Structure formats: C-alpha cells, structure tokens
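Supplementary Methods S3. Input chains for the assembly prediction are listed below.
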Amino acid sequence: DAMVIQNPRYQVTQFGKPVTLSCSQTLNHNVMYWYQQKSSQAPKLLFHYYDKDFNNEADTPDNFQSRRPNTSFCFLDIRSPGLGDAAMYLCATSRDSNTGVGNQPQHFGDGTRLSIL
Amino acid sequence: SQQGEEDPQALSIQEGENATMNCSYKTSINNLQWYRQNSGRGLVHLILIRSNEREKHSGRLRVTLDTSKKSSSLLITASRAADTASYFCATDPLYNFNKFYFGSGTKLNVKP
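Predicted structure tokens for the full assembly:
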C-alpha cells in the first residue's frame, strides 16, 4: 500500500545533541510537510516543500531545518535540541493544491516521538 | 496565530449517541478539512468541504460550513467505541497554497 513512513517511531536524544528525523513516501506527492505536535495540542506547521521549493513558517525556530533530496524523502534536522523541543513530529504529504480550488487532503505518517534527556 | 478553535475540548458520550464538534477559524479559506487522530498515531483525513459548499455527508459523518460565521461542525451519528479519538479541523487559507492550519481539537470518548 502506498504510504508515508516515519523513522524512527521513538527517538531519544541528549540536550544540545543534533538529531535527524526521516520521512519517506510512496505516494509520489510533490508536497511534503513537517508538523510539531505537543501533548493535547494541535499540530503546528513548521515548514513544507513544494517539490524542491522550501517554505518556512515565520515562527519556526532557526534550530529546525529540513532537507528534501528527492521526491520520496524528507528529513527534519534539529541542530541543538532543547527540552521544549520534546514533541511528536509528524510528516505529511499531499498533491499540489489546485488554483481556485484549494488544498488536497494530506496523508500522514504515524510520527516520531522525540524525547530530550 | 491562524489556528482555529474547536469546542468542546473534550466530549464523552455513550455508544449509539451522536457527537457534534465545532470549529471556528479566523481567515477566509478555500476549503476546510476534518481529520481524526487515534492516540499516538498520525492524522487520518475524514472529509473535505469547499468554501462554496454548505453541507457534506460521508457515511456516518455530516459536515456543515458557514463561511459568514467562519465556523464548521462535524456530526458523527450512531457513534461507536471505535470512534474514540481526537478530531481536528484544518483550514486552507485563501491565496496561501499548500498550507494548513489546524484547530485545537476535540477529544471524543465513546463509552461502550
């Protein structure tokens, strides 16, 4: 089945130690998203790629970066994780939005839960 | 923040009852989508309603949209224990392609 896969499901890192989360998709969607979701809160959009075009949200900290080497893969790099970065990180994909029609539904992975020691 | 608000924050009902969740948002939109999230899992798309639609049905789900009030509701009829999850609305701001902003979510508990 076509899907969005996030690895690992659980990640533990030390305060200040860089960490990379990965996402892959077999849907061949050209848009990929990264969200941060803290306990009992809404997913918060960090950034998205439209093909290789990177779009950062204005309030996403500089500590968060992303790479998309090809259509199938997208990575979230946290350069110096702080305790406040402990959260679930969700990757999602969608087809390109249609002008005048709006966004297509998103397909989510099951997330990576990041803990900071 | 462009994120919307949902109410109630939590809802507990008996199996067989109907569940209604409301979403309010701040900006003009292209469409509004509803998603479901089981505990510890990713979100699953349920239904999409366009800004020129007022009501949409999918199985036991009924969604309404009132763009003049910037609000939407999700009704789940004849609820089942398996419907226990968090439900989020997501808005798609006008002229802001490929961006989504999620509401705060409603945590639904359906008791068997």
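Chain B touches chain A at residues 3, 29-31, 33, 35, 40-45, 48, 50-51, 88, 90, 92, 97-105, 107 (CB under 8 Å). The radius of gyration of chain B is 13 Å.
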